[in-house]
Amino acid sequence: xxxxxxxxxxxxxxxxxxxxxxxxxxxxxxxxxxxxxxxxxxxxxxxxxxxxxxxxxxxxxxxxxxxxxxxxxxxxxxxxxxxxxxxxxxxxxxxxxxxxxxxxxxxxxxxxxxxxxxxxxxxxxxxxxxxxxxxxxxxxxxxxxxxxxxxxxxxxxxxxxxxxxxxxxxxxxxxxxxxxxxxxxxxxxxxxxxxxxxxxxxxxxxxxxxxxxxxxxxxxxxxxxxxxxxxxxx
Length: 234
Prior knowledge:
This protein is of the alpha/beta class. It has two domains: 1-35; 37-232, Sortase, Chain: A (Beta Barrel). Helices cover 15% and strands 30% of the residues. It is built from three helices and nine strands. The chain has helices spanning 3-28, 31-34, 118-121, and strands at 57-58, 96-103, 108-114, 125-127, 138-144, 165-170, 173-186, 201-209, 219-232. Strands 2-3-4-5-8-9-7-6 form an eight-stranded mixed β-barrel. The mean pLDDT is 81.
């Protein structure tokens, strides 16, 4: 094969790849919500995610009692519960669901999996077990891929705006958060996993940044939201 012919083939192949990438971006971009006023995006009204095609179990219910086996109501989160009541051993973290997350801005409704290893992130969004669960004061940290062959739930996390609402469905209740800060940190800045305030319930969404990079990406995009209320899930 001549060099000229090989060059033409490579140019055509590269052009086709770029066109395919552009088409993918146009199809997956959340056009319907990207420019909507955040106050109009009620994440709790979004449908539940589609169940995964594999067996899984739910995180043990920290609110279940003999009198109330289903375990939750609007005021239950105020009752003191030991953090270890909902912790799992490392041997039991595969395919354990914490709840759902719904983000109107991103047109996103996904399961939250217990753990932030690749086995959880390839299925969607992972909960970082060293941080606090929604019913506890502190910092509830969720992470997800931005670009991945199987799962990229936080691909457009950069579209989030101050004032946007995020809902976490947790044991039959909607934990409704409002975004109050968006920033970028270095990949080694683990302080974003630490409790923000012992009297506050904070949600932290974390993903890699920038979205396009050769090699290991140097930064993390952080979206911070504060709990504003808890309502019953439909």
